[in-house]
Design brief:
Layout (H helix, E strand, L loop, with lengths): L6 E6 L8 E5 L4 E5 L5 E10 L4 E10 L3 H18 L5
Antiparallel strand pairs: 1-2, 2-3, 3-4, 4-5
Length: about 90
């Protein structure tokens, strides 16, 4: 069963216009900045490096409006991988 990621408000800019929120995922790997118009930037901070067998601090930021295009690219890459690598599962 997929576990839901919980978000914690780290800064509420409610006294300013426009109203915005900074949030952090409970696991500490993600942060997001959410504007009042619904736009959102998500940052991933730590990633696993299989070459060193360690977690590395690294930033990867994506704007929520770019996610559908990113998902399309990932699906296309997955299809390419499955069709071109014999041992792909």
């Amino acid at each position: 069963m997929k576990q839901e990621l919980k978000w914690i408000i780290t800064n509420d800019f409610g006294d300013k216009e426009p109203h915005c929120l900074s949030v952090r995922a409970e696991d500490g790997f993600y942060e997001a900045f959410i504007k009042n118009n619904g736009c959102c930037e998500i940052t991933e901070f730590e990633r696993y490096n299989p070459e060193t067998d360690e977690n590395e601090t690294e930033e990867f930021t994506i704007h929520i409006c770019d996610i559908p295009r990113f998902i399309t690219m990932l699906q296309s890459l997955e299809d390419f991988r499955m069709n071109n690598i014999e041992s792909a599962e």
